[in-house]
């Protein structure tokens, strides 16, 4: 029986893949292109993390991620017209994925003995770098550099997770609190349109 | 005396480098920029593969790839005007490169003990990821996500190669059959303009 | 007491980060986006080098690079309007960074036993690849593929450094001569607007 975390991992991967496939379809990519962009969105963050940590990328140890992206692909092909109406559902899934990926990424680095600030960065990369890769593939400026708080939710959640850990809190409880922090930060940011300030350095003279 | 495979490798590298250099020249890159884009097109796929497999990138073990790209560069500088007329020749070279790179990439992963689906992906990355890198460098949407069947030819060839291997066919014969499959799939796709369907998810609302 | 090289490293990182942050601000990135682009500019080259050499990326061994980028960020936020007037100062800093990063990258590869041509490439990647990453993030064609001699200064400096080394010159002296070569090449290139030729392959038929 798959564990709860495995189910969440599947939900997150599915939602991330859908986000990549939808944006690829808006650019009129073919099925192959859409699949690759969906896959990159879903596994890109974890792959960059694993290259930096010098371990085998997770997706190379389990075909689940490829299969899950294929399912997301069929889903968009079959229900493309209805996917728009499910925006709220996908936003929820995407946020679950973001929270889970952040905690998984943090835990992996921390378990390898890296200090907390590396773990926070690895959590954020796991959660947010797939979306950057997606936007590079579709030739757009990465959304997370300009929209509401997204990767900052990973940083905050990672920080809370670490504070729980050094307070000798139970490991599983710490993970849950860290993940919920990412989730709530992101939900609040979207609900109240909380954005970071735009940097006004010398935009008049780029 | 260089082996047949070494010659094919040189031909493929040369053709891939030419493809990068030509597109860079269309964007008015300088010599250095064109060389880098040519090199990235030729060795980019193999480098991404080797980073994922955690082995030393092939181009770092043999200066042949840098020299071959330099030759491609001089070729375009000297014969730029005539290169256009050689479109058919380069298409042939490019397809030979695609077939060879796919088989090399598959074999490398398979020899390291990875399962067939990883080997197929590594073959496809070796064949097609250099072109994606090239298109990112020249700031265009990657061509292979939208044009005729290209990376899919790598997937199909890899699959055929694997079927040959598990059928206890001779290793060299399997490689040849796999490579020819890539070659023919690509040739047929271009000749008959075979494309994958465009994904129509929600392009009206991107 | 920090050594002279540590101070130069800080200066170079600061200047590279400023360059990324300024370009991000011109694209109206938020604080987070600008920080990430600044960081990628500063540490991107070294990270790609370390992934290729299969060693732990330098920035993961010392939080100095993250802190230095944060300082660059605060600097732009506070003194944004005046940063423009400091163009000459930043050009100087950026060139110091380029020279230092080139020598550091060359030395790292050479100390690991790689041949001189790999070391030259690693020096150039350390110096110039961060800027390529920056331009990909802000969705522009990489500047170094088209503007005055930049990465070529790294190649020339690396070559001179290597010639010094094989001439049995003192190691520190070789580094200084190599670094000064990068510095002067770049300064002269900008002062006299020295550019590499534009490649005219078949731009009329891209």
From TrEMBL, chains A, B, C:
Protein name: Trimeric intracellular cation channel family protein
Annotated localization: Cell membrane
Keywords noted in UniProt: Cell membrane, Membrane, Transmembrane, Transmembrane helix
Pfam family, one: Gly_transporter
Alphabetized InterPro entries for the sequence: Gly_transporter (IPR005115)
Transmembrane segments: 6-25, 32-52, 64-84, 91-110, 116-137, 149-166, 172-190
Similarity remark: Belongs to the UPF0126 family.
